[in-house]
Amino acid sequence: MSVVRSKICGITRIEDALIAAEAGADAIGLVFYAKSPRAVSVQQAQAIIAALPPFVTSVGLFVNAGRDELNAILEVVPLDLLQFHGDEAPGFCDGFNRPYIKALRVRSGEDVAARIEAYGRASGVLLDTYVPGVPGGTGLAFDWALVPQDLSVPIILAGGLTSENVRNAIEQVRPYAVDVSGGVEAGKGIKDAGKVRAFVRAVRGACTS
After folding, report:
1. Can 9 be counted among the known catalytic residues?
2. Predicted TM-score (pTM) of this structure
3. 9, 16, 93, 179: which one is catalytic?
4. Does 207 qualify as catalytic in the annotation?
5. 153-198: per-residue pLDDT in tens?
6. How many CA atoms lie within 13 A of 127 on its CB side?
């Protein structure tokens, strides 16, 4: 099995970013969405990114942000990758000349493959759990059998993942990467070092099996 990458999302503190990096996570996620309990300010994001060691990707998560708002953040926060987690159209996502991933919330009865293919210029598509009115961070898993195979866009699996279930998720879906937030927390926006290390360890164990 090929190597599966891991992203620890909802980072709000420098110490949690460093724990994720030390554990071997490939990326950390910073939430620029005021309604989220894991939201960060520009100043927090700047400090966290400045503390990251080399080769850890910083991902900025946005939910239906306006173009002006997003550009203002990009001018002062050196994000490596954008993550659009709302209802953003492909043309909007493509319009920043930056690598991005698009999050899609999955529910039965939809043509998941067609929705994914609409974002063909994305670096990857993140599949999360559909809960009405909640853009993400639900802590709930969806039916992994709904994920199509042989897609042209790399898949990042999210939604209710923990160190206990991520190995099964990887074996069933075979994603490019996995994304976790609530599953490694001691509280909203506060990561648990032991859970972070156990999660990354479980991902790596699945990769080598």
Report:
1. yes
2. 0.93
3. 9
4. no
5. 999 999 999 999 999 999 999 999 999 999 999 999 999 999 999 9
6. 29
